[in-house]
Amino acid sequence: MTNTSLAPIAGAEVKNAAFWGHDGKALASFYATALGWTLTQTYGDSAAMISDGTTSYVFYTAEDFQAPNWPEDELVLHLDLGFDDVQAAEQNLLAAGATKPDHQPGGSHWTVLLDPSGQPFCISSNDAW
What we know:
By secondary structure, the protein is an alpha/beta fold. It has helices at 24-35, 86-95; strands spanning 16-21, 38-43, 47-51, 56-61, 79-83, 111-114, 120-125. It has a 4-stranded mixed beta sheet with strand order 1-4-3-2, covered by helices on one side.
């Protein structure tokens, strides 16, 4: 439901998003590799931040983290990553610790992978966007 009586707030930008997994620092390292971003800060053994210089992601360790049982479980958040060379990206992401589930609902439009904490994300061609 959209509230049409509110005016948009000028100048709003997403600057940071937070994610939880079994190992926040390892997850930060994975996504830094996946996105070509830089690990910019660590917070002890439990969290790390990556950034491209404009947007940051923080990855936290959650001791009781449970990956969704996808596709049965609904997802709280989902990332779609675009690449110039999707096949090379898939190979690199798998080598970096992603896995490829059997369930692939995207056909030739996108590929679902699971990050090292078991959370699904999709990859597709930059041209698809």
